[in-house]
Amino acid sequence: MKLDSTISAVITGGASGLGEATARALAEDGVKVAIFDLNEEKGEAVAKELGGVFCNVNVTDEASVDAGFAKARAAIGQERILVNCAGTGNAIKTASRNKETGAIDHFPLDKFNLIIQINLVGTFRCIAKSAAGMMSLDPLEGGERGAMVNTASVAAEDGQIGQAAYSASKGGVVGMTLPIARDLSREGIRVNTILPGIFNTPLLAGAPEKVKQALGAQVPFPPRLGEPAEYAALAKTMITNGYFNGEDVRLDGAIRMAPR
């Protein structure tokens, strides 16, 4: 797919981090962008700067997602690109023992389900609704109608202690990539997924510099945190390379996460 002003894109989680970097990278090539996010102040500012549109969207709420796509399509047209970056995580053991009292507790299922709803179901919800819209478009050269990029995590394969919910949600994103790509293949819609390692995103914004350096030192090469622009570069490659389809690609400096 050639990126220019005739192409529209929806980026979930586009107000910051990996999503913001991707929105900026696409806009640099003239792509019209719609940012789906809950952070209205930041999302509005980024959308205004890029000449796009902000949509206050909660990916766990179907009506909210429907309203977001309706607003985006009215403003910039039917998207040919969807990049799913909306997500979150928590750190809770499956079951644990209080070292002081000896009391035993287990992972609260509502907190487990919340991560699944945001990271996995929310991603699929946006994929399904975007795909239905893309199918209404005329195909481009080569029969292509659209391209999607999802965000998983190396935790899908190297989940650490306390990451059961997060790993399950991201593993689900990896697991559904190929069947969705196959589902949409006859419609000319490609689907790929990136598994980022340790990236310098807002999740680490409040961490002391020494902590960031220690995390970066765990990466074989280069021994540093990944930068959102590097994620965006891979996302653009997945979008522009027409033979890139049904793949799950680690972007992690060769790190393999230790148990903790």
UniProtKB/TrEMBL annotation:
InterPro entries from the UniProt entry: NAD(P)-bd_dom_sf, Sc_DH/Rdtase_CS, SDR_fam
Domain of life the protein comes from: Bacteria
SUPFAM superfamilies: NAD(P)-binding Rossmann-fold domains
Extent of the signal sequence: none
Key words, A-Z: Oxidoreductase
GO molecular function, one term: oxidoreductase activity
Record carries keyword Flavoprotein: no
Family matches, as PANTHER family: 17-BETA-HYDROXYSTEROID DEHYDROGENASE 14-RELATED, SHORT-CHAIN DEHYDROGENASE/REDUCTASE
Family note: Belongs to the short-chain dehydrogenases/reductases (SDR) family.
The protein's name in its UniProt record: Short chain dehydrogenase/reductase family protein
